[in-house]
Amino acid sequence: MSTKRFLAGLVALLMALSILPAISLADSLGEYAPITTMDELTEGDYVIYDTRDAYNGIMNNTISGNKMGLTAVTFSGDNIAVTDASVVWHIAYVEGSGYTLYNAAIAKYCEIVSASGTAGFAFNDTASNYYTIEVNDDGTFDIYNPNM
Fold first, then answer.
1. What does 83-98 look like in DSSP terms, one character per residue?
2. pLDDT of residue 54
3. How far is CA 49 from CA 13, 15, 58, 113, in A?
4. How far apart are CA 124 and CA 43, in angstroms?
5. d(CA 131, CA 146)
6. Can you count the helices (H) and strands (E) in the chain?
7. What are the backbone dihedrals phi and psi of residue 87, each rounded to the nearest 5 degrees, phi first?
8. CA dihedral 109, 127, 43, 50 (to 10 degrees)
C-alpha cells in the first residue's frame, strides 16, 4: 500500500471516529426536538412527553400505578434535554402491524396489557402489541393499541 493511500485511509478513519460520539449522543442522550407531523416520524429514538391532566412528564421504563412511570421534563428552549436512557424509546414501524416501542436501557418492549387500566402496562422481551400513532390538529400525537 502506498503512503498516500495509507494516509488517505487514516484521515478517513479519523474523520469517521470523530463523529461517532455525536451519533451515539443523538441516538440516546442529548436534546430531542419536537415533531409535529407524521412525516417527521421515522424509525429512531424518541422521548414520549405526556401532558394529559396531572399526568405530566416523559414516559420512562417503569410502571407506576398501572401506568407508565414518568420522569420530570427538563427543557432546553423547545427541546427536551435527556440525561437518562430510561426515557428513550426506539419507535419502529412493522409493515402490516403497526409501531413498536422498545427501551434499550431494559431491553424490553412496552406493552399495553389492558384497556381498563386494571392491569395497565407490562414489558416484554418480544413485541406482541403494535400501536397506531396519529397526529392531532394541535400537533400532539396519540399512541394507542387499535385492538383494545
1. --GGG-EEEEEETTTE
2. 64
3. 38, 35, 4, 21
4. 20
5. 7
6. 1, 13
7. -100, 0
8. -50
Q: How many Å apart are CA 112 and CA 121, to the nearest integer?
A: 5
Residue 20's alpha-carbon distances to 14, 15, 27, 66, 86, in angstroms, are 10, 9, 11, 38, 21
pLDDT for position 86: 95
Output 14-22 pairs: Cβ under 8 A, ≥24 positions apart: none
Which residues are CB-neighbours of 106 under 8 A, at least 6 positions away? 61, 86, 123
Encode pLDDT of 73-126 as tens digits: 999 988 899 999 999 999 999 999 999 999 999 999 998 877 665 678 889 999
User: Between vectors from CA 41 to CA 37 and to CA 146, what angle results, nearest 5°?
Assistant: 90
> Rounded to whole angstroms, how far apart are CA atoms 32 and 105?
17
Question: Residue 3: helix, strand or coil by DSSP?
Answer: helix
| Close Cβ partners of 49 (under 8 Å, ≥ 6 residues apart) | 57, 58, 59, 73, 80
